[in-house]
Structures are given as C-alpha cells and as structure tokens.
Specification:
The chain has 295 residues and is of the alpha/beta class. Helix content is 41%, strand content 22%. A 5-stranded mixed beta sheet has the order 4-3-5-12-6, sandwiched between helices. Strand 8 (191-194), helix 8 (199-209) and strand 9 (219-221) form a beta-alpha-beta unit.
C-alpha cells in the first residue's frame, strides 16, 4: 500500500467516475483500476462496486475511504509541518466559507501567498453544517461559519465582525437615494433571496417576521451566482451582506444600507482543536488574529 493508492481512492469518491478520477491523478484509467484492485487484494476486501461504470463503494469501502482521508491528511500535514519547521509553508490550504458571509477571504489569501509563494488554495462555498462536518473529518483546514451551534470543545474559533445587511440593486433599474432603507420599504420591492433554510435567509426572515411583515420573494435560489445574475439583469433586488465586495463586481451594482439589519448569529473563523491539525491552518488562524488585533 502507498499514498498514491489512497489518492486514487479519494479521487474516485470525489469524481464518481473512473475516467475522471484517472485524469485528475494524471494516469490512465487501466492503471487506476489496476492500482485499486491491488489495494483490494492487499486489504482482502472489496472496496468498489463495479459495473459498466462506477456504481459506488461497498460498506467496507466507505469505512476504508474515511481512513484513507485521515491518512492522506496526516501525510500532507507531515510535509507541511516539515516545511513550517524550515520557515516556509507548502501544500494546499482548504478553506470553506458559508454563502453570503461578510468575510472576504481574498485579502487573507493574498497575504498568505505573498509570504509563502508555494502555497496553494482550495476555496469552497458550503453550508454551516457541511463546514463543521468537513472540519471534523479533516476535509477542510479552516472554516468561516456562524458560531451559534459550535461545539467549543471540538473546535477553536475566532469571532469576526458582525455581518450587517444591505440591499443590492442595479442602478440602471432602481434608485433609493442615500438614506438607509427600512424593512417596511423592502416589502414593496421585487426581492430575490437564498432558499429557505439557509442560514443567511433565516436572518432575513427573522427581520421581516419580527416586524409583522409578510415576505413574498419574487425569486428564491440556492445559488448565489444566479441571485447576482437576477439582480444585475434588473429582475429583482437582494438582501446581501455589507462589506462582502458584491457591489464592486460591476459598475452598475450598488449596496444600500438597511436600518437595524444584522444576522442572528456571529460569523467566525473555525479550526479543529484535535490532531491532525495542519501547520497551514495554524498559520492562517494566527495571521487572522494578528490582522484583527492590528485593525
């Protein structure tokens, strides 16, 4: 057994396709299949359900897959730790961020890249629940998520600035002047919102319902980019986080403040407390702490 076999197994899980997994690993499909069969023979377990195409993993395969992720994370962490001891950071920092957070990760990534040019980044947009799950299973190094239900014994966190809300609109279709908007004014507008159940949407619903206002959005979607396209096309306006950089995407977008508009829970940077915890995660967490203290 070697690390490459575990990488092949994980690639197959992430692509759910033999050919795509082989391409991701820069090998041919026959070689991928052969190496996975060798792994099955060594472990004396069937791992993959095979048909004319990939059909999934066996029950033992799912359990081995979880161990493979842990072993690979530990291996990559070992390399990163050795590099950190030499005064540099290498590898890939895996960061998960909830949709529509007020945290803009780009300045942090730019600073890390400037200090450590060999560092790479994997940025994912995930729900709060998925961020916690992937931090726990070591599929993410760091998460930016809401802190209301965080297990403080398992995860270390650093609170970030409160997430304020504003109304994003295209000035070619709407105009609101300079004064902050009231929630009562928003009821009269065509609104586009994230789907019900998403954390940011829950805060929006609370702000309307607590004022006795009945919300009837024109558009609901679970995809942020579709919401932005609808706003840019003039179909609707959208309640969005302030300081998220969304109004700078095009020259036509504007973000108008809403009075007394905050999310229900505070946003924070989250890192697992238990090993294996990568040197990349710790370095990024420390840099954020320094930036917060300086700011």
């Amino acid at each position: 057994m070697d690390i490459k076999q575990l990488k092949f197994l994980i690639a197959l899980d992430e692509t759910r396709h033999f050919g795509q997994a082989a391409a991701r690993c820069n090998i041919t499909q026959p070689i991928l299949s052969m190496r996975l069969r060798n792994l099955e023979e060594e472990l004396q377990l069937p791992l993959v359900v095979r048909g004319q195409r990939f059909e999934g993993f066996t029950a033992p395969g799912e359990r081995i897959l979880a161990w493979a992720r842990s072993v690979l994370a530990a291996y990559e962490g070992l390399l990163a730790e050795a590099a950190a001891c030499r005064g540099s950071l290498v590898g890939t920092l895996r960061l998960g961020v909830v949709p529509l957070s007020s945290f803009d990760p780009l300045p942090l990534l730019q600073e890390l890249h400037k200090q450590h040019p060999n560092l790479k980044f994997e940025l994912s947009s995930l729900s709060s629940e998925h961020i916690i799950e992937q931090l726990a299973s070591n599929q993410l190094d760091l998460g930016v998520s809401f802190l209301d239900h965080l297990d403080r014994e398992r995860f270390e966190s650093m609170p970030l600035a409160d997430t304020r809300m504003g109304l994003l609109y295209d000035q070619r279709y709407f105009s609101f002047g300079d004064t902050p908007l009231r929630w009562e004014q928003l009821i009269e507008l065509p609104l586009g919102l994230l789907s019900s159940g998403m954390h940011f949407r829950q805060s929006i619903d609370h702000n309307f319902h607590s004022r006795g206002l009945q919300l009837q959005p024109l558009l609901e979607t679970d995809a942020v980019h579709q919401l932005l396209q609808a706003v840019h096309g003039g179909l609707c306006c959208a309640v969005m986080p302030v300081n998220g950089g969304l109004d700078a995407l095009t020259e036509h977008l504007r973000l108008q403040l809403i009075e007394d508009a905050h999310t229900l829970a505070q946003l924070g940077l989250i890192m697992r407390r238990t090993a294996p915890r990568s040197a990349l995660a710790e370095a990024c967490f420390t840099l954020c702490q320094a930036n917060m203290a300086a700011g």
